[in-house]
Amino acid sequence: MTRLAVSESASSHAPQGDTPPGADEGDAAPLWRPAPPAPGSVESRIAEVRVKLHPRSVSGTFAHWRIVFVVLTQLVFYGLPWVQWEGRQAVLFDLAARKFYLFGLVLWPQDVVYLAVLLVISALALFLFTAVAGRLFCGYACPQTVYTEIFMWIERRIEGDRLARIRLDEAPWNARKIRLKLSKHALWILLAWWTGSTFIGYFAPIRDLGEQLFTLQLGPWQWFWMLFYGFATWGNAGFMRESVCKYMCPYARFQSVMVDRDTFVVTYDHKRGEPRGGRSRKVDHRGAGMGDCVDCSLCVQVCPTGIDIRDGLQYMCIGCGACIDACAQVMDKMQYPKGLIRYTSDRAIADGLDARATRRRLWRPRVLVYGAAIGLLAVGFVVSLALRSPLRVDVVRDRNVLAREVAGGLIENIYRLQFINTSNEPLTLQLAADGLPGLSVRTVPEDRQEVRVPPSSNLLVPVVVRAPTDAGTPGSHPIQFVLRSAPGQSGAQLDLHEAASFYLPQ
Ligand code: SF4
Ligand code: SF4
């Protein structure tokens, strides 16, 4: 069994309050903890869920990247609904009108295939990133990680770092504890409410929501989703945290089939680190038969999911790299080379590959297949959008009136034309029909041969088609509606042909 096999027996019971060698917080007396239940037992699983983690803050390269991604993703999430495009909200999923606005693009329910392709591309991209570098999405862009980071940042500002929080949680309730907890929850709830409000701003014009909110004119569904999403944010990022990643997220469970021995994952170099143990900086640890790991447990203390990466890759690891940053600081202090915990592959550690050989092994069939599939789908998506007709027409026969004779020796059939203008420009169309001699088309009741379809709208237009009684033999005849852009119409020149049938009675 390779070390990449998903392990559930990781040591997630690392001591929370012990004093690590190499720690710079001045953490003094170890805090006593009751003996944990037997590993693997039901009690230990339940205890794991209940135990509140107090991850220690850490700085370093990966911590900086996490901050960058938190800021970027939140700028997009909170800012996007406020962006205007051609006089309307740039991104709006208008469920009531069944229209999705994406900047210059207006998608209708008939365009669901585009959304499906986008979802497939996103899923393949997730598979690709996972095959290349494990759970990059989880560590840096997953909403659960991002909001947990923000909520923990607020918590640290108010309650202090790890040891201060542990002490506060264990202290009896007093005025200071109540004040700190109230302040923290007030800020959490404010942020959660803002998040919920922004969320519904993707489904209803956000500029109207503020006024509707303060005048209590939101609809019941808007209230529900704002409170539900806000409550979920508060609960998941404030309380559930790593439990969502460990026990609720399906991606965590099937990642093991997407990574292999060449995937870059956060890895403890056990060859270099073992045997682990405390020592003085001056000791020649190699001479004493020791590895580079000083067993300070800092990598465990900073881990947001509370696992020990030295037990090998585990499904609970979200690939955030916090343990890499923490261990790099310890290595610096001990004047050992960095990289005892690093992004590398299982094969690189096992076979002692250098960085270049490890990177070369990234180009393997599954990566190339995922990349090619994403490329093909992306090209097809863009080409299909570029060639998409701005007008859709559906012809529906009026079933109540099959055919009737009217003045002038003519037979009349009635249809309804359903126009969908997916562009942001009005479209003016000239109507005609061919397939039988002497066919004419007029709109009802305007009696015109021209139709104007407003931008981003659908329009149902009744039309009558007339033909001389002697235009053909009795029965049904195939005809087609011809819809052309009116002279002077700007933009794409349309020439659509829609099949229909014309009935000539006996
Ligand atoms: S791997 Fe690094 S951070 Fe973790 S216990 Fe060993 S020396 Fe400390
Ligand atoms: S083991 Fe390291 S990379 Fe994995 S979740 Fe914990 S801190 Fe993040």
Question: Keywords, please?
Answer:
single chain, 506 residues, alpha+beta, Immunoglobulin-like, 3 domains, four-stranded antiparallel beta sheet, 19% strand, disordered N terminus, binds iron/sulfur cluster
Number of domains: 3
Name the structural class.
alpha+beta
Radius of gyration: 33 Å
User: Which ligands occur here?
Assistant: iron/sulfur cluster
User: Overall 3D geometry?
Assistant: elongated
Termini Cα gap: 81 Å
Average pLDDT, all residues: 86
Counting DSSP H or I runs of 4 or more residues, the number of helices is 17
How much of the sequence lies in strands comes to: 15-25%
Helix content: 40-55%
Number of β-strand runs: 16
Q: Biggest β-sheet: count, sense, barrel? A: 5 strands, antiparallel
Poorly predicted runs are 1-33
Condensed summary:
It is built from 17 helices and 16 strands. It is α+β, with helices and mostly antiparallel strands and 506 residues long. It has three domains: 61-256, no CATH class; 265-353, no CATH class; 391-504, Immunoglobulin-like (Sandwich), CATH 2.60.40.10.
Characterise the protein shown here.
With 506 residues, the protein is of the alpha+beta class. The chain folds into three domains: 61-256, no CATH class; 265-353, no CATH class; 391-504, Sandwich (Immunoglobulin-like), CATH 2.60.40. Helices cover 41% and strands 19% of the residues. It is built from 17 helices and 16 strands. The chain has helices at 42-50, 61-79, 112-133, 136-140, 143-159, 162-170, 175-200, 206-214, 220-240, 242-248, 250-254, 270-273, 298-301, 322-334, 346-351, 355-360, 365-387, and strands at 84-85, 88-89, 91-94, 99-102, 105-107, 265-268, 341-344, 391-397, 404-406, 410-421, 427-434, 440-443, 450-453, 457-468, 475-485, 495-504. The strands form five sheets. Strands 8, 9, 10, 12 and 14 form a five-stranded antiparallel sheet that branches. A hairpin with a 2-residue loop joins β1 (84-85) and β2. α2 packs across α5 (143-159) and α5 runs antiparallel to α7. It is elongated and about 110 Å long. Residues 1-33 have low confidence and may be disordered. One iron/sulfur cluster binds at residues 266, 302-305, 307, 309, 317-323. Keywords: 4Fe-4S, Electron transport, Iron, Iron-sulfur, Membrane, Metal-binding, Transmembrane, Transmembrane helix, Transport. The chain crosses the membrane at residues 63-83, 114-138, 186-203, 223-240, 367-387.
